[in-house]
Design a protein that fits this description.
The chain is mostly helical. The chain contains five helices and no strands. α2 packs across α4.
């Protein structure tokens, strides 16, 4: 298995685990796993392109690069939702309805990243 495939597999696993945590009522773990799914998907794309992906700042750069590459400015908004879930892991201020909304944004982001990855 390549590094890219490993990142993709972990992204899928974390996304599934996030939904299980959310359904079980563990909002904190769900938040972080949705973020982790996003981070791993971004790492997969960055790895393929030879971009840095070792820090939080790199994730913003990856998203900016993908916007430049695709013209899809909604990637920024969708990534923002994932980042709020990451913040929630530390701050614990989002409620379930908000987490579910941001989880839908994460799903949309992962779908768009997968489409980019296929091209």
């Amino acid at each position: 298995m390549t590094t890219v495939e490993r990142y993709q597999e972990v992204s899928t696993t974390l996304f599934d685990q996030a939904h299980a945590e959310l359904d079980a009522g563990d909002l904190i773990q769900a938040s972080e796993k949705f973020w982790g799914a996003t981070a791993q998907a971004l790492k997969a794309i960055a790895q393929e392109r030879g971009w840095n992906h070792g820090s939080h700042a790199h994730f913003y750069a990856i998203v900016r690069n993908l916007v430049d590459e695709t013209g899809d400015h909604q990637l920024v908004e969708l990534f923002g939702g994932a980042n709020l879930l990451h913040i929630n892991f530390y701050e614990h201020w989002l409620e379930e309805i908000e987490i579910r909304t941001f989880a839908q944004q994460v799903q949309e982001l992962l779908d768009r990243l997968a489409a980019i990855d296929e091209n």
